[in-house]
Design goal:
The protein is α+β, with helices and mostly antiparallel strands. The protein has a domain at 20-79: Phosphorylase Kinase, domain 1 (2-Layer Sandwich), CATH 3.30.200. The protein has two helices and four strands; from the N terminus they run H-E-E-H-E-E. The protein has a four-stranded antiparallel beta sheet, with helices on one face. The longest helix is centred in the N-terminal third of the chain and has 16 residues, at 3-18. It is globular. The termini are far apart.
Length: 87
Amino acid sequence: MNSLSRQCAVILAPAVLLIGCSAIETVSPADGTDEYVFTCTKVAGQPGCATRAREVCPEGYETLSREENFDRKELRVRCTGEGGEEI
């Protein structure tokens, strides 16, 4: 690895490590229960949507929908038990 490549790797590595679950949205459906939509990038070694859903819904969650393509995931859940964390 030459010097320029090494410098680029050192600069870009922290930025890549910060990417994970990049967005979370709370959706309030008509029945009054909170639903959450997690949008996550698919970067190796990073916590994904399911990890974030477990953090927000520690007593478990019901998966309402899931979409995935080559670089992005979206997970829509409803917490079971005692609701979710405040966002």
